[in-house]
Amino acid sequence: MSLDNRPVYAGGCQCGAVRFHVEGALGTASICHCRMCQKAFGAFYAPLVTAPEGGLRWTRGEPKRYQSSTHVKRGFCAECGTPLTYEGPDGVALAIGAFDAPEEVTPTIQFGVEAKLPYVDTLPALPARDTMDDLDDAPFLVDLVSYQHPDYDTEEWPPADGTTGGEDKP
Fold it and tell me: Which of 86, 92, 129, 158 has the CA that lies 20 to 30 A from 141?
């Protein structure tokens, strides 16, 4: 929380070249299944949340933007490709997965369901395994060192001492 009791959020891309802060209540958190969002995220759908007007501040770098339609730009990290924004006439929405604490942002609605992939609703029924349960098929996981930016703000990135702060995450 900020000094005036407004919520504060932080996040950024995978490599740490782009970081953001959001101050104030977030708007609608959604999942969009439209084909444009599927392609922009390279995923089954795009989880997004609207930033409060005037509450978004880029604290390290800024996204590169792609004009994906007549009304919308998509922001992403030019270094690592992480999808970051959906910028339309109604404001800026941020990728929920780019937040340092994405578990704090719960989608409440789905959009673009006409393009929802037919198997999306059955995903929770698939067998589930923890990352380290996959060592027989992926033995490299034992000594994997992540270069991903950690889920907190850093003064500089990458750190001058060569550590990454993200070693605990594949």
Answer: 158
Specify whether the CB–CB gap between 37 and 67 falls below 8 A: no
Q: How many CB atoms lie within 10 A of CB 54?
A: 8
Which pair of structure tokens corresponds to residue 33?
Answer: 């299944």
- H helices of the chain, in order, are 35-41
Over residues 9-59, the pLDDT tens digits come to 999 999 999 999 999 999 999 999 999 999 999 999 999 999 999 999 999
pLDDT (tens digit per residue) in 115-133: 999 999 999 999 999 988 9
Q: How is residue 125 written in tokens?
A: 């029924």
How many angstroms separate the CA atoms of 100 and 42, rounded? 20
Model pTM score = 0.88
